[in-house]
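Re-run with default settings, no changes from the original entry. Doing this only to confirm the output is reproducible before filing.
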Amino acid sequence: QGVTMAPRADATAALMHQYREAAKTTIWATGGCHSWYQDEEGVPIIYPYLAEQFRDEVKAPIILDDFVIEPLKSADLVS
């Protein structure tokens, strides 16, 4: 449609913070696990929710306010 769309940095940071906080409650963080799944603070770098929630997130309507939407420059348009 002649536009570029990219997630806003603050929206991405908020989502990653939510995932990080949830990951702290998983077995990867609470079960005494020490593995490459964890960052230097011991927090797992994984998606922390069940597959059903992932499916729901993928199917959820896009919140356009979470994105920077800009028109393409005429040189970027492909005919």
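The longest strand covers residues 3-7. The chain has a mean pLDDT of 90.
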